[in-house]
Specification:
Length: 323
């Protein structure tokens, strides 16, 4: 294979998915010293990629548009030596082929990718026992990266060290000498949600003089759980809709732990080295083995029943957070 000095990692996908893609950048830097790494994502993942010490530049598909010819032009200007489709996007796959990027790595299992990859991968993702980050690493074997790494090593390669500052108004809410925990009930449909009564029970179990609790989410998610706020302790601070993503990353960094289902903030907290307690169903491909958080203090709790349900007791979650 020709010498590769500039790699484009393409993942125009959700926040949590992007966090789990960042170890690919760390692995590339370790295997190919001096390599330049650009990430292609969406505008809403710009703040995520900006936290990664291994990424040199970020470009957004939202700025390029969704027409093959337009994306082709941008790719020719960017001129990477290789593109790795961590998650294939039809327009990007076609444009990378049309731009004649010398090394094109990605799945060969989709109709639109046939004949458009110089190094196709035929691994199946839905039935794989590998973690999402491990599946990404396997794609890098084509570039000489060892595709066998532990989850601990992948967590270390995340490189989530460029943490933005927490807004001062949010810092002023944090009382000294207390543990500060974030409860994030929503998932914007990306995960199986824990029922609102369980969140209320968790808040009751955690509430105390030595703990501060914060509820987070989008403004829309806040409207949903505010309807049940009467069941929550009065000490629960509702911060839904108050932060930009960059500000929220800073706030998570200022707190001690977070509880969520399989969603972006859970992966952010884990990458920041915070206590991150994730709630997962026992069903493929949504299970924790595939989508669990990566971090030194990340914990996964799984449903006691199979299927699209989360019947995890609040006391079990509270105990995991306080460990």
């Amino acid at each position: 294979m020709r010498k590769v000095d500039h790699v484009l990692l393409s993942r125009p996908d959700a926040i949590g998915d992007m966090v789990l893609t960042l170890p690919m950048a760390g692995a590339l830097k370790a295997a190919l010293p001096g390599v330049r790494i650009t990430v292609l994502g969406r505008n809403y993942t710009r703040a995520i990629v900006g936290c990664c010490e291994h990424v040199d530049d970020f470009v957004s598909l939202d700025d390029w548009g969704d027409e093959v010819d337009a994306v082709t032009g941008h790719l020719r200007t960017l001129a990477p030596d290789a593109i790795v489709h961590a998650l294939p996007h039809k327009t990007v796959v076609k444009a990378a082929h049309k731009a004649r990027i010398p090394v094109r790595i990605g799945t060969g299992r989709r109709l639109y990718s046939l004949g458009r990859m110089t190094h196709p991968s035929f691994q199946t993702r839905k039935r794989s026992d590998l973690h999402e980050a491990q599946l990404g690493l396997k794609l890098l074997e084509k570039l000489g990266v060892n595709g066998a790494a532990s989850l601990k090593q992948l967590a270390a390669w995340t490189g989530f060290t460029r943490v933005p500052a927490c807004p001062q108004w949010a810092l002023d809410l944090l009382e000294p000498g207390k543990a500060h925990y974030i409860l994030h009930p929503g998932s914007r449909g990306s995960a199986v949600d824990w029922a609102s009564q369980h969140w209320a029970q968790l808040a009751e179990a955690l509430a105390g003089e030595d703990v501060q609790l914060f509820a987070s989410g989008t403004a829309t998610e806040g409207e949903g759980f505010r309807a049940a706020l009467d069941a929550y302790p009065k000490a629960l601070h509702d911060l839904s809709g108050k932060f930009s993503l960059q500000e929220f990353i800073g706030f998570i960094g200022a707190c001690d732990g977070l509880v969520a289902c399989s969603t972006g903030p859970l992966h952010i907290a884990a990458a920041l080295g915070k206590k991150a307690v994730g709630l997962y169903p026992i069903v493929r491909p949504m299970h924790a083995g595939r989508w669990g958080p990566l971090g030194p203090h990340a914990t996964v709790l799984t449903s006691h029943s199979p299927g699209l349900t989360l019947d995890i007791p609040a006391a079990e979650v509270a105990a995991a957070l306080k460990e």
